[in-house]
Amino acid sequence: MGNGHRLGRRFGWLWGAYGASALGTWLAFGAFPLIAIQVLHAGPAKVAALSAVGTAVGAAVAVPLGPWVEFRRKRPVLVATDLVRCVALLTIPVAFACGVLSFVQLLLVAVVVSAADITFRAASGAYLKTLVPAEDLLVANARFESTAWTTTVVGPPLGGAAIGLLGPVATVVADAVSYLLSALGIRATGGREPRPERPQAARLRAGDLLDGWRYILADPTLRPLFFNTALFNGLLMAADALLAVLMLGRLGFSPWQYGLAFAVPSIGGLLGSRLARPLATRFGAHRVLVVVGGLRALWPVGLAFTGPGTGGLLLVMGVELGLIFCCGVFGPVYATYRLERTANDRITRTLSAWSVTTKAVTALLTAAWGALAGLLGPRTAIGLAGVLLLATPLLLPRRAAPPHAAPESAPAPAPDGA
Predict the structure, then answer these.
(1) Angle made by CA atoms 256, 234, 265, in degrees to the nearest 5
(2) How many structural domains are present in the chain?
(3) Which helix (H) or strand (E) holds 255?
(4) In terms of residue numbers, what domain contains 109?
(5) Which of 56, 306, 394, 396 is most exposed, with minimal Cβ within 10 Å?
(6) Which positions ≥6 away from 171 have C-beta within 8 Å?
């Protein structure tokens, strides 16, 4: 990947750790709802609550963690959050084996994993900037993106087979092991990471919890990108949840057909991620963001026309292929653009605020669109989400801005010289 561009041994360990955890995540795709339905016999309301409440509460728990992590070494935080997710997930198969698994436990584990996930993502962005030069950030993010889409293709089918052979909690065990492998990989990156210095050695204050949002909203480039991604992701996930209801219910598709409809188009994400760097090099990151960010909004409205049979399946696959290809290009360019626009001493707080907001908006819109589908039907609700998505390109940054031109940025900590 990346045309043989070398980023060093330490990045290689981080990349391997990311691949292990991404594969585990996709092996366990849909595991919690499946366990809730098949093992705990939960109804639709509880299954929806498991996703929405777990995500929302996890996001709230993660709010104070961003400012706290900002002024600590990131590698120990990454290892710790991996181990927390590993231990939390392992409580599920243990409780299942003992016959004491409950819905409350599933919900609590979902909250812990969600909070740890947000914290990990925020800290990993800051850590990445210490491992690779600024000019290689796009290469690194493209490799992460291509790995994510590769595991999306292979993970769910393998996870489905594992569940069929070994039972409903098998993929949860695999996901827990993947976080352990990720922790070991990050630990193996080695090197000396400087401890970030807190200005004036001040104690964490209540007002510091909002620093990430203040920073984003004060920046004329980050602000529109922030609103664009939160709204786009939220509406897309809300529509995807209803598409599952439509395809698996009224249209009569089998679970393997539903999985195939999303696994095969993920190849488009792999292709898009490989084109991200050449396109950004030729046309500029800002132009790629605006053009591809606009194109990705055109596809989802087509899902409202999904019908039964082979034609309907091919329609979903075609729409998802176009959408995922655009997301594959957009993702690494967007991640790099955001890192470049954020001062080194603000990265963790900024990324944490970004993730918290995105998860909270997704949970809110998923719940709202579930209620809307109850009133108007899933097809109409999917169509409405698609129409609103057509307006999201208006929130993309209108003008390019130079990197690191962020407001109120303190001197950045020295990069790791190892």
Answers:
(1) 35
(2) 2
(3) helix 255-263
(4) 7-194
(5) 394
(6) 27, 28, 29, 31, 159, 162, 163
Considering only the C-alpha atoms of the chain, give the largest distance between any 2 of them, rounded to a whole number of Å. 65
pLDDT tens column, 164-185 = 788 889 999 999 999 999 999 9
**Residue 122 and residue 214 in one domain:** no
Please classify residue 184 by burial: count the beta carbons closer than 10 Å to its beta carbon, then call 0-12 exposed, 13-18 middle and 19+ buried: middle
Check residue 396 and report its DSSP letter. S
User: How do residues 344-401 score in pLDDT, each as one tens digit?
Assistant: 888 888 988 998 899 889 888 888 888 888 889 889 999 999 999 999 999 998 877 6
Residues 177 and 34 in one domain: yes
- End-to-end alpha carbon distance in the chain: 24
Give yes or no for a contact between 242 and 381, defined as CB atoms under 8 angstroms apart: yes
Q: Is there a contact between 271 and 387 (Cβ–Cβ < 8 Å)?
A: no
Query: pTM of the prediction?
Result: 0.80
- Residues contacting residue 290 through CB under 8 Å, at least 6 positions apart: 393, 396, 397
**Token pair 């696959």 in the structure block, residue:** 317
- Burial letters 80-110, b for 16+ CB under 10 A, else e: bbbbbbbebbbbbbebbeeeebebebbbebb
Radius of gyration from C-alpha coordinates of the chain: 21
**CA pair distance 21, 157, nearest whole angstrom:** 17
Query: What 8-state DSSP symbol labels residue 406?
Result: -
Distance of CA 117 to the CA centre of its chain: 9
When pLDDT is averaged across residues 46-67 and rounded to a whole number, the result is 77
Share of the chain above pLDDT 70, in %: 90
Over residues 194-217, mean pLDDT: 71
404: left (phi over 0), alpha (psi -120 to 50) or beta: left
| Contact indicator for 343, 402 with CB cutoff of 8 Å | no
The alpha carbon of residue 149 and the mean position of all alpha carbons in its chain are separated, in whole angstroms, by 12
Say yes or no: 144 and 216 in one domain: no
